[in-house]
Amino acid sequence: MEQRGALKPRRSISQEEERKYKPANAAVQRQVRKDKATWIEEQCAAVEEGLMRNNPKRAYEVVKSLRKEFRPRQRNVKDDNGWLLTNMTDVLQRWKEYTEVK
């Protein structure tokens, strides 16, 4: 994976760099697919174990976590003038201002 990271920014320099990047990228993609399949198998085993040990709560928690869509947290806040603050330090400062007792 580190090899792909080193090659990625350089791949637009020449065709030779692109030829070096493609096999590294393919290897990383294969490993990621394999790791994902292993993780899903582990999660399925956890569900089966929960059902076998008469612990349906744990089993259904795992199923729920697998079915839920990822939703990133919204961390953008508007300042006093209505401008959108996306920088985390600015957002924290705005929250500090907002929560101060006036």
Q: How would the global form be characterised?
A: flat
Which segments are poorly predicted (pLDDT under 50) over 5 or more consecutive residues?
A: none
Proportion of beta-strand residues:
under 5%
Strand order of the largest sheet: 1-2
Number of domains: 2
Number of strands: 2
Question: How much helix, percentage-wise, in residues?
Answer: 55-70%
Supply the number of helical segments.
Answer: 4
**Mean pLDDT over the residues:** 83
Distance between the termini: 52 Å
Radius of gyration: 23 Å
Q: How many strands, which pairing sense, and closed or not: the largest β-sheet?
A: 2 strands, antiparallel
Q: Which structural class is indicated by helix and strand composition?
A: mainly alpha
Order of helices and strands: HHHEEH
Could you explain the architecture of this structure?
This protein has 102 residues and is mainly alpha-helical. The protein has two domains: 2-71, no CATH class; 72-102, no CATH class. The chain contains four helices and two strands; from the N terminus they run αααββα. The protein has helices spanning 2-7, 15-52, 56-67, 88-99, and strands at residues 77-78, 84-85. A hairpin with a 5-residue loop joins strand 1 and strand 2.
